[in-house]
Specification:
There is one protein chain. By secondary structure, the chain is an alpha/beta fold. The protein is about 40% helix and about 10% strand. It is built from 27 helices and 21 strands. The chain has an eight-stranded parallel beta sheet. The protein is globular, with a radius of gyration of 27 Å. The structure holds glutamine and zinc ion.
Length: about 750
C-alpha cells in the first residue's frame, strides 16, 4: 500500500490571517497571547485540511521563517541579540525584522540578512556563522507542536532542515569556512532526534535541498559524514531533496544511511528510474509526483501510467507527496469565485493538490476504478486545457516562429547610436533621471480602487490620473531633472499592470504566496499564448510628454521579469512564453516610439532571479532571456534611447550577458554597498552608459549632496564620466513626497556640482 504525506503546508492562512496577526502584533495592537493563539489555530486548521494523509508535517509552521526557526532550535542566534531583554518571540522578531532604537525602546538591532530560498520567491533569514559559532539544543518549539498535533490525534512527522543544508544556507562573517562547523553541529542534531523519538516521532523529515545544487567534494563529503553520524539516532529519517534533479548527487543520496529518500519527480523526473531500481531494499522511496511550485492540475491518469509499475515494485515502500513543501502555492482554489470558469477548471492550489494526492494513492492501492469519477473529471480538465483556443493561439505561434535574428539587432552599434542620441536629446554630462515611479499616495491608491470596483467611471478616473501625472511632471521640472517620467500612478504592480492588459494572463483574488515575513505576493497566472490587443501605456506617456519640453522616458516591464514573477505554463517551454511576451512588449515599444517618445525604459528587475540552480543550465537560460529582451527592445531607430533597470548589481557572474542586452543605458542598485558592487566593472569594460543608483530609496533618510558626489566620483574611477547617469537606485513609489523632494534636490545639486 502506497502511503501519502506532505512536506509542508502554506502557513499564512487562506485569507492571510497570519500576515494580519503579525502586523497587528508588531504595531502593538495585540499582545503575545493573541499571536500565539492564532498560530495554534492556524496549525490545527492546516492539520485538519491534511488529515487524509498518512503522515502530516509538524514544524513547518513559522511565525516568520523556517530557517530562523531552525537557528533558534540549534541555539544559534546572532551575538547581538543574546542577552537582550524581552521574550523569546520578541528576540525572534528582532532578528527577523531588525528594530531601530526608536521603535524598539533602547534595544536597536539590525535585521538578519535575507536571501532567496533556492530558486523560489521565498526569502529566508541567513544564519550568520564565524569560527567561534557554537550550537545548543532548544527543542521546545518542535516538541510543543509535536505534542499539539498528537494530542489532536494527527499522525505527525516533524520536519527539520538538515545539517548540511543548514550550513549551506549560512554565511561566514569572518574568514572561517562554515563547513568546519559540522562536527559541532551534529551532536545537537543527534540530541534533537533523540528528543523527537522520546516524544513519539517514528519518522522525521530532514530537508536537504542542497542536494539539487552543484556540490564540491567537500560538501559531498559532509553529507557522508553527517548521515553516518546520525544513523544511530532512533527516529527513521526521510531525507528530502527538492526543487530539481539530483543529477550527479544522486548516487550519494541513494547510498546515505537513512530510512527513506524523497525525490522531486516533477523537476527531477529523470531521477525516478535511477532510484527505483537502485534503492536498498529496506528503504522507503517518497515520490514527489505533484507540482508544489505551480498551480496546474496534475494529469492524474498520466501520472498513474508511470507510477503503477513503481507501486507494483515497491509495495509498502512507496510514499507519495507533492514535489516540495506547498509553501510556494496559494491555499485554496475554492476561494476564487471571480476566476474565469475555464481557467479555474485547470488549476489546483494547495488543498486541491492534497485531494489529487489522495486520488493517486487510492488508485494505486485500490485500482483506478475505485476513483473513476475523480479520474474522469481530471481527464476532462486536462483535455479542455490542452484543446483550448485561449491557450493555443495559432497567430501567436506563427509570430514567434517568424522571429528572425534581426529582431534582436539594433540598426547601428552603440558608438553610432550614442552620438545620434546625444545630439537628438541634448543631454548634459551626468544626466539626471529617476527609475519610474513617484510616491503612490493614499489618494492615488483610493482612486485606483474606486475605479477597479466600478465606483468611478473611466473618464473621471483618467482625468484624476492625468492630474497626478501633471503634478509629477511639474515637480520634476522644478527639481531640474533632465529626463522625466510620468510617475506610474496608474500601476498597482509592475507585472500585474501589464498582465491585465495582455491576452493569456489570468488573475486570482486570493492566490497569495509568502515572500518573506508578513509579505505576500499574488503572482499572475500565465495560462496561454500571449498577445497584446492594444497599446498599454501610450496614452499616459504621450500625455506626460505633452506637458513638457524635457525628454519623457516611457516605462515598461520587460519580458523576462513578466515571466519570472508569474506562475508559468507547464505545457510550453519558458523560453517560448518569454518570446511571446517579448513580441508583445516590442509592439508597445514601437507604438511609444511612433507616439514621439524617444527614451524608453524596459525594466528587468527579475532577470537574475530566473538563473537556474545549476551552473550548467545558466547559459541556456541567459541565452533566451537576453534574446527576449533584445527582441522587445531593439526594433527602434538609432535615435531612440533604450534604458533598462535592475534592482541589484551582483553582476560579476553575468556581466557579459547584461552587456549583451545592448541597452543604451542601464540603471542599477549600488548605493547600499557604497558602489562596492561596481567591482564587476573592474575586470569587464561595460560598453554602454550606466546609472549606478546614488542613494538608497529603501531608507527614508535624505542623502547628503556630498555623499552623492562621492559616490559618483567613485563610479567615475571605473566608468568614464561621459557614460555615467545619476539616479536613485529604484522606483520611488514607497516613499512620500516629503522624502523624495529633498533627496532629489540633493541629487540634482550633486550632478550640477560635478559638471562644473
Ligand atoms: N519602474 C519601476 C518603478 O520605478 C521599477 C521597479 C523595480 O525595479 N522594482 O517602480
Ligand atoms: Zn528597482
Amino acid at each position: 500500500m502506497a502511503k501519502t504525506h506532505n512536506l509542508g503546508f502554506p502557513r499564512i492562512g487562506a485569507k492571510r490571517e497570519l500576515k494580519f496577526g503579525q502586523e497587528a502584533f508588531w504595531k502593538g495592537e495585540t499582545g503575545e497571547p493573541e499571536l500565539l493563539h492564532l498560530g495554534a489555530d492556524l496549525r490545527k486548521r492546516h492539520w485538519q485540511h491534511q488529515s487524509s494523509l498518512d503522515l502530516l508535517p509538524v514544524g513547518d509552521f513559522s511565525f516568520y521563517d523556517q530557517v530562523l526557526d531552525m537557528s533558534f532550535t540549534l541555539g544559534h542566534i546572532p551575538e547581538r541579540v543574546k542577552g537582550l531583554t524581552g521574550s523569546e518571540l520578541d528576540n525572534y522578531f528582532r532578528i527577523a525584522r531588525g528594530r531601530s532604537a526608536s521603535d524598539g525602546g533602547c534595544n536597536g538591532v539590525h535585521a538578519g540578512e535575507m536571501t532567496k530560498w533556492f530558486d523560489t520567491n521565498y526569502h529566508y533569514i541567513v544564519p550568520e556563522v564565524t569560527a567561534d559559532t557554537t550550537f545548543s539544543l532548544n527543542a521546545d518549539r518542535l516538541l510543543a507542536q509535536l505534542a499539539e498535533a498528537r494530542d489532536a490525534g494527527f499522525s505527525a512527522k516533524p520536519v527539520i532542515i538538515g545539517p548540511v543544508t543548514y550550513l549551506w544556507l549560512s554565511k561566514e562573517k569572518d574568514n572561517s569556512s562554515r563547513l568546519d562547523l559540522l562536527p559541532r553541529l551534529l551532536p545537537v542534531y543527534s540530541e534533537l532526534l533523540e528528543k523527537l523519538a522520546d516524544a513519539g516521532a517514528e519518522w522525521v523529515q530532514i530537508d536537504e535541498p542542497a542536494l539539487v545544487t552543484d556540490l564540491s567534494r567537500d560538501w559531498k563529503q559532509a553529507f557522508e559524514s553527517a548521515y553516518h553520524t546520525l544513523k544511530t539516532s532512533r527516529p527513521k529519517l526521510l531525507l528530502a531533496a527538492y526543487f530539481g534533479a539530483m543529477q550527479d548527487n544522486l548516487p550519494l543520496a541513494r547510498n546515505l544511511p537513512v530510512a527513506g529518500l524523497h525525490i522531486d519527480a516533477v523537476r527531477g523526473h529523470q531521477d525516478v528510474a535511477r532510484v527505483v531500481d537502485w534503492l536498498a531494499p529496506h528503504k522507503v522511496l517518497s515520490i514527489g509526483a505533484i507540482d508544489g511550485r505551480n498551480i496546474w492540475k496534475t494529469d492524474l491518469n498520466g501520472a498513474l501510467d508511470w507510477l503503477e509499475p513503481i507501486a507494483a515494485k515497491l509495495g509498502d515502500r512507496l510514499w507519495l507527496a507533492p514535489s516540495c513543501s506547498l509553501l510556494h502555492v496559494p491555499v485554496d482554489l475554492d476561494s476564487e469565485t471571480r476566476l474565469d470558469a475555464d481557467i479555474r477548471n485547470w488549476l489546483a492550489f494547495a488543498l486541491q493538490k492534497l485531494d489529487e494526492l489522495d486520488v493517486l494513492a487510492r488508485a494505486l492501492n485500490n485500482g483506478r476504478n475505485s476513483v473513476a469519477v475523480a479520474l474522469n473529471n481530471n481527464a476532462r480538465s486536462i483535455q479542455s486545457r490542452h484543446a483550448s483556443l485561449r491557450v493555443n493561439d495559432p497567430g501567436v505561434r506563427q509570430a514567434v516562429a517568424a522571429i528572425t535574428p534581426d529582431f534582436g539587432q539594433r540598426q547601428a552599434p552603440f558608438s553610432i547610436r550614442r552620438t545620434r542620441q546625444r545630439a537628438a536629446h541634448r543631454l548634459p554630462l551626468f544626466p539626471t533621471t529617476t527609475i519610474g515611479s513617484f510616491p503612490q499616495t493614499a489618494d492615488i491608491r483610493k482612486t485606483r480602487k474606486l475605479y477597479r470596483n466600478g465606483d468611478l467611471d473611466e473618464a473621471s478616473y483618467k482625468s484624476l490620473m492625468k492630474d497626478e501625472i501633471h503634478q509629477t511632471v511639474r515637480e520634476q521640472e522644478n527639481l531640474g531633472l533632465d529626463v522625466l517620467v510620468h510617475g506610474e500612478p496608474e500601476r498597482n504592480d509592475m507585472v500585474e499592470y501589464f498582465g491585465e492588459q495582455l491576452e493569456g494572463y489570468a488573475f486570482s483574488q486570493f492566490g497569495w504566496v509568502q515572500s518573506y515575513g508578513s509579505r505576500c505576493v499574488k503572482p499572475p497566472i500565465l495560462f496561454g499564448d500571449i498577445s497584446r490587443p492594444q497599446a498599454m501605456t501610450v496614452e499616459w506617456i504621450r500625455y506626460a510628454q505633452s506637458l513638457t519640453d524635457k525628454p519623457m522616458k516611457g516605462m515598461l516591464t520587460g519580458p523576462v521579469t513578466l515571466l519570472n514573477w508569474s506562475f508559468v505554463r507547464d505545457d510550453l517551454p519558458h523560453r517560448q512564453s518569454c518570446y511571446q511576451l517579448a513580441l508583445a512588449i516590442r509592439e508597445e515599444v514601437q507604438d511609444l516610439e511612433a507616439a514621439g517618445i524617444n527614451l524608453i525604459q524596459i525594466d528587468e528587475a527579475a532577470l537574475r532571479e530566473g538563473l537556474p540552480l545549476r551552473r550548467s543550465e545558466w547559459p541556456a537560460y541567459l541565452d533566451w532571456a537576453i534574446e527576449s529582451f533584445r527582441i522587445a527592445a531593439n526594433g527602434v531607430k538609432n535615435e531612440t534611447q533604450i534604458h533598462t533597470h535592475m534592482c541589484y548589481s551582483e553582476f560579476n557572474d553575468i556581466i557579459e550577458s547584461i552587456a549583451a542586452m545592448d541597452a543604451d543605458v542601464i540603471t542599477i542598485e549600488t548605493s547600499r554597498s557604497d558602489m562596492e558592487l561596481l567591482n564587476a566593472f573592474d575586470d569587464f569594460q561595460y560598453p554602454n552608459e550606466i546609472g549606478p543608483g546614488v542613494y538608497d530609496i529603501h531608507s527614508p533618510n535624505t542623502p547628503a549632496e556630498e555623499h552623492i558626489a562621492q559616490m559618483i566620483q567613485g563610479a567615475a574611477a571605473r566608468i568614464p564620466a561621459e557614460r555615467l547617469w545619476i539616479n536613485p537606485d529604484c522606483g520611488l513609489k514607497t516613499r512620500t513626497w516629503e522624502e523624495v523632494v529633498p533627496a532629489l534636490k540633493n541629487m540634482v545639486r550633486a550632478a550640477k556640482g560635478l559638471r562644473q
